[in-house]
Amino acid sequence: MSELKSVFEFNKKSNIKEWQIVNDDVMGGLSMGLIQINPQGNGVFSGHVSLENNGGFCLVRHDLERIAVDTFSAFVIRLKGDGKKYAFRCKSGEHQRHTYSYDFKSSKECQTIEIPFKQMEPVFRGEELKLPNYHGDYLAQIAIIIKNGIEEDFTLEIERIYLK
């Protein structure tokens, strides 16, 4: 296995436009999420999840130039949350419709989460698929989603995401 490789490290000069918000309004929902850089230089994904109009999720994603990741076995994320459950997602190709997803519970303290590739399950629009888990050959997109089935405010502070 290789040493750690940065996928994205937030800092005060990060181009936040490299990250895209996808709210449930794409399906008629009323949830609102946003991504900002805080004074410490960390990315802050925050907002409100609404269940109105069949809503229920907020997602932030970052598209990458497709890279080979076959010498790695896990994602490592340094973050600080609000105690709520989120999911980290990735895609191996830019035209791939499904994502690979891993649920985690955030802490109100800084934490480092390790996500083994082999534990990332394939999903499409929230439904699990009968496909193999993430094989870890290529990486084209990373994302974080909140979709807990309840109306709630959320805040997740992200320092960095890297490969191990």
Task: Offer a few descriptive terms.
164 residues, mainly beta, Jelly Rolls, 7-stranded antiparallel β-sheet, 13 strands, 0% helix
- SSE series: EEEEEEEEEEEEE
Total E-strand runs: 13
> What is the approximate shape?
globular
Mean pLDDT: 95
Percent of residues in beta strands: over 45%
The structural domain count equals 1
CATH level 4 superfamily:
Galactose-binding lectin
CATH architecture: Sandwich
- Give the helix/strand class: mainly beta
Rg is: 15 Å
CATH topology name: Jelly Rolls
Largest pleated sheet = 7 strands, antiparallel
Spans of at least 5 consecutive residues whose pLDDT stays below 50 are none
How widely separated are the two ends?
8 Å
Can you offer a commentary on this structure?
InterPro entries: Galactose-bd-like_sf, NADH-UbQ_OxRdtase-assoc_prot30, NDUFAF1. Belongs to the CIA30 family. This is Complex I intermediate-associated protein 30 (CIA30). Residues 8-158 form the NADH:ubiquinone oxidoreductase intermediate-associated protein domain. It holds the Pfam family CIA30. With 164 residues, the protein is an all-beta fold. It has a single domain (5-163), classed as Galactose-binding lectin (Jelly Rolls, Sandwich), CATH 2.60.120. The chain is 0% helix and 54% strand. It is built from no helices and 13 strands. The protein has strands at residues 5-9, 19-23, 32-37, 43-49, 58-68, 74-80, 85-91, 99-105, 110-116, 121-124, 127-128, 138-146, 152-163. It has a seven-stranded antiparallel sheet, with no helix packed on it. Strands 1, 3, 4, 6, 9 and 13 form a six-stranded antiparallel sheet that branches. Strand 7 and strand 8 form a beta hairpin. The chain is globular and about 45 Å long. The termini are close together.
